Amino acid sequence: MARKLYAYGMDGFVTPMMKYFVTEGVLPNFARMLRRGTVNQTYPSFPVWTPTNWATLSTGAHTGTHGVTTWSVEVAPGQRINSFSGEANNAERIWNALERAGLKGVALHYPAAYPSGMRDSYAIDGFGAPGQKSTDFEIASCQAYANYQTDAAVAMGHDGSAQEGQQSVTQIPALQPATDWVNLPTSHRQPLASQIEVHARRGGDINRFQLLVIDSSGNGYDRVLICRQNDGNSRIADAAVGQWSAWAMEDFQITGQRQRAAVRFKLLELAPTGDRIKLYRSQITYTDGFTYGDDALAADLIERFGPYQEHASTIPYSSGMTDFDTALEECEYQGLWFADVANYMLYEKDCTYFTCHWHLYDYLNHIHLNNVDPICPGYDASTAEAALDLFRKAYQVGDRVLGRLYEAADAHPEHETFVGILADHGAYPDIRIANIRKFLYDQGFLVLKSGPASVAQDQDTLPDDVDWTQTRAYMKRRGFDIMINAEPGSAEFDEIERELLTALRTWVDEETGRTPVAIALPRRDAYLLGQWGDQCGDVIFAWDHGYVSGYYAQWQEIVGGGAVGAPAVYGAHHGGFLPTDNGFSSTFGTMMLSGPGIKAGYERPTEQLGYIQAVDVVPTYCHLLGIEPPAQSQGAVARDLFDGHEMVRKR
């Protein structure tokens, strides 16, 4: 009997929160997983970032081995590539191991899945980055349009931070009588018209659409038509108030060429009098080019399941483009699309293994986890329940996704199917923030030509601004490692290393009396945090619980200035701090698994056995499928998840 394995990735999934909602009775499919399968929190690879841990969850290798230590990887001196490119990950993936055994896998919207040496397996969007404007098969990111001035000014990054240069709501001309139109549809009032523009992200081309507003019921203006020209017969989409249009497949201009792409619209607001309108447009994504290994697969998937929407997030909500429910509807469309593709690829395309990267929970954690966990100093009990309901709705969407997987597994008893959910990490509310570059500057390790102004926020230091004749230690990138500006092995290097380690280990947050840095290690000891190899710095450090750095665009500043303090704006994060924060919020990852031979209702007793580590996931999957793990895999099989394997011993 052939085996099938779902490893559906839900970025930022927080297991304790899921359990809380299960007790409310609102997550029936996760309740089934808890009863019939094994649900465990996993110890993430350090640093606890998205590209790092999805690399671990496809290779079974530690950070130092696969080399994806942060958001970019240095492949040659001074040459960095995006960590979401398959060339960044320097280890074999599970689909390479499957192919050696004559099996096939599929990776959908999975970070750095392409290129990765696939031959017979499938990569569907092998980039999988969480941010807007990151994919090569996007005409334009999502956008809202209104004929009045809104408070929303700029779009937000995936962590809730402002992204400069993009208006989240574009003001369009006021609605005017459609006097120069032909083929007008029936309307109880004079049709009104305006125009929207779509600016191609990479090509600079402008694609214009005409809006036609009509009164279809006799009770006031209630519908918008989106047309190519001032011609009612050129309509590509239409929507009533509060509703989505159908998907439109249209030719767009990008870099002066025609490109087929998909788009849909939601009419958020339309005054019956016709004086106010607000229209939301989805991301416009190519209808080809996003699959690898089978040129006809993209068209097949779109025909069966609808267009591929690469970016779906809470950004439209956090930026003011839409309400929360509209943003969540897009996330649900994407999540269920992933599930439908999983079912199709496993049962109709003869794949053995499916994995994906669905980013909903990480987006929501960054902007609202601090509102629901009392451990955050910015917690407000009066708004907590409203924020908690946003999470409740989001986890209900995840429950429907899991239900779609269970339905297909139940319908194919001829296979031994294992249903699994994965998460790379969770998140934890901000308590204190730290600026390591300012600390290095204040302690005299870093000397800048521009002075202290350029380290007021913890952003990347420009090499041209560094006074290399006086600088003793610096950071090449935003992260958790520090470089020493001296020849390794020299007396000067050793002296700077000693001073730097002492400074980091004795740094005290004067307001709290705590040390922000929990661990500071020289490179020779950095293996304790999974760090080695060509990406490893000279000194590696991890922040203590409650301290975090690297997100200053969201925080804006440290209250009172200085190198450590309270953020001006609270959020929630994951990153280069101890990855064992656990309560209602949790920085741990997640591994859920149910199927034949998997223990029912089991959770590893971590006080006796420790946590399943992120590196253990791939070896465990390979053991279940009866194949050898990838060549660089370093984890262990979590044997206690299988029936008949009892690992706890009594003295």
Low-pLDDT regions: 153-165
Let me know the largest β-sheet.
9 strands, mixed
CATH top level label of the largest domain: Alpha Beta
The portion of residues assigned to helices is: 10-25%
- The structure class reads alpha+beta
How many DSSP-defined strands? Answer: 35
**What percent of residues are in strands?**
15-25%
CATH topology of the largest domain: Alkaline Phosphatase, subunit A
- CA radius of gyration: 26 Å
Number of helices: 15
The whole-number mean of residue pLDDT values reads 94
CATH architecture field of the largest domain: 3-Layer(aba) Sandwich
Tally of domains: 3
* Major β-sheet strand ordering: 22-6-5-23-1-24-34-2-35
The dominant shape is: globular
Describe the protein.
The protein is α+β, with helices and mostly antiparallel strands and 651 residues long. The protein folds into three domains: 3-132 and 303-429 and 585-641, Alkaline Phosphatase, subunit A (3-Layer(aba) Sandwich), CATH 3.40.720; 138-286, no CATH class; 432-569, Gyrase A, domain 2, CATH 3.30.1360. The strands form nine sheets. A nine-stranded mixed sheet has the order 22-6-5-23-1-24-34-2-35, sandwiched between helices. A five-stranded antiparallel sheet has the order 12-13-14-15-16, with no helix packed on it. Strands 7-21-18-17 form a four-stranded antiparallel sheet, with no helix packed on it. The longest helix has 30 residues, at 381-410. Mean pLDDT is 94; it is low at 153-165.
